[in-house]
Amino acid sequence: MEGRNVPSGQRLAILLPDLGGGGAERVALALMQGFVERGHPVDLVLVNRRGVLLPLVPEGVTIVDLGARKLRQALFPLVRYLRDRRPHALHAMMWPLTTIGILACLMSRVRTRIIVSDHIALSKQYGGSVRTMQAIRWSVSLLYPLADARVLVSSAAADDLAAISWLPRRNIDVIYNPLDLPAVTRDRTVTTRWGNGEVARIITVGVLKEQKNHALLLRAFALIRAQRAARLAIVGDGVLRPMLERLANELGIAADVIFAGYNVNPWPWLNTADSFALSSDYEGFGNVLVEALHAGLSVVSTDCESGPREILDGGVFGRLVPCNDAVALAEAIMEALDNPRDPAAGRTRAQQLSGYAAIDRHLATMLA
Length: 368
Fold this sequence. Notes:
There is one protein chain. With 368 residues, the chain is α/β, with parallel strands linked by helices. It has two domains: 12-174, Glycogen Phosphorylase B (Rossmann fold), CATH 3.40.50; 200-352, Glycogen Phosphorylase B (Rossmann fold, 3-Layer(aba) Sandwich). It is built from 14 helices and 13 strands. It has a seven-stranded parallel β-sheet with strand order 3-2-1-4-5-6-7, with helices on both faces. Strands 10-9-8-11-12-13 form a six-stranded parallel β-sheet, sandwiched between helices. Strand 8 (200-205), helix 7 (214-225) and strand 9 form a beta-alpha-beta unit. The relative contact order is 0.13.
């Protein structure tokens, strides 16, 4: 194991709303595994103990349920936890839980380091609400300086946080997301849901919500399907699924679109695809792009804020296209299918971004 020349034994805690199937939660799983492997007792502190990823919590991690129905109800239970367990450091993820973590540390009067992290460009996620953006500006400006460290998952997301608050950009650290990157099995028979026949296999993974703009991908796929045999697997679930299924029917591509639903383990799909497509309007980092690179896929992504351009190094490790351009997305996917990138280079890039070094940087921040 790399990166073990660090102190060990301090109790570390990670604070989340729950353990749903989002990107931040998967990052937390990778961090917990890394911390345990490096000899630290780890507490996973949940506002409410629920979520599809609970079975994946690493062995040896203590789950602490604050038992709160709403985030604001978690403050006093969190104060009691800090006084009882006295962790060396608490990593609170995702505004506004980040602000609750800071307040709890102040109120507890224990010497616990508090690290806060946000996993998306907040102005993109909440920009539609003036009231929410005002709350973000004031809470971040007043409370984030009291944290021991502030971590964002990409440089563009860090720039965004500085722009919407009065935080100096130099006081915001950027650490790319560590991820669990398993051994790759390039076996096209692992899953049979692609159907029979040698067709181009295109995949995307993500929650079916407006941010991910799966409707754009369906329109691009319709253009691809008009020119070649292909199938599209959409791995994920969400409130927009009925609408997307109707759109696939309207476009005449329903027979070649697989709505695979949510998968705790998406790797059988990734390991049997040919190309990965991300059609998002915005991201924080884009974990799925790193996973696709690790799987050796040719990657196409919208050039959205704030992670894809950094992950793909401006287009070196995948193709970037403008947002909301179905024609450009279709052409880039077909180019990726016809001229795939070097899978070994993609795997190396994935390890550089999200391997042991990312865990070590997070650990150093918590142990400082």
